[in-house]
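Lay summary. Proteins are chains of building blocks that fold into shapes, and those shapes determine what they do. In this project we predict the shape from the chain. Here is one chain we studied, written as its sequence of building blocks.
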Amino acid sequence: MSVLSVAVLLLALAAPAAPAYVPDLSRWRLELLEAPGGWVTDPRQEVRYRLVDPGDPSPPAEPGAGTDPYEDAESWRPPGPRAEPTPEQERAQREQAEAEARANAWRHRKVRVLLNGLLTDWDYLDVNAPRTLWLDSRNGENRLELLEPDSGARAAATWWAGAAQDRLEVTPERGHTYSWRHPWSLDTGIGVPPGDLEVLEPDGALARGGATTPSGGRCTWTGYLHPAPAPGTYTVRWQPSAWGDPAAVTVEVTLDRGTDRERRWRFTRLILPGSPPAILGTFDVDP
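And here is the predicted shape, written in a compact code that computers can read:
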């Protein structure tokens, strides 16, 4: 920074400061820029919203506004050597940054996010800057409510979801519950014990290895999912790997998650590497 630049900065700091902006919270409003409505089938829904202050003297620029930072890439040259700032320059820069932080402290807010009557999170944002939320719908009616508590600004959206949620979930538990090593590595594994989850459906179809059964059950890297499981008895199995250490495998089964019919099962069994497929447990799905 040149001596002239430092002088200008010091004069600016010494000049009488402009009155700090005091927002009128009664004029604030929450705007939904993009929200689901009507019927949806995707379980993940995107919601874009903004907390608006109409009197904001310096609102944030819209994303993508301004010049293209790459349009002059061909003419760009690396900057030359720059002298280290003096203690006075560092102090002036620090005081300027602190003054700017104090002047904009009012801008940093948090919004209460309620989905279907439950508090899911507090979303931290800046006034007049768009925000994006990703929410998981449940089957049937869904209602989102946003509240900025200081101003009382509110916004709400309602939508209906059909087949947005798998009725049956079988999920292996992850964690530090086992220890294994690759034959070519000394690293300790963390996650799901080595092997594959298998689910035998009532009609005899076997879901494993990413395949989808004729009825719609499917194994993914997170477990087994079925949007509309047929009534009957389901068998949860584990196909061990040929290598590794003995490990306790735990899976959790959830049926009709988030409804008044929700049921859960939890199965745990010690698995030996190289052994035949082991039955972890069975459960029944009612009509």
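What the prediction tells us: Residues 168-285 form one domain.
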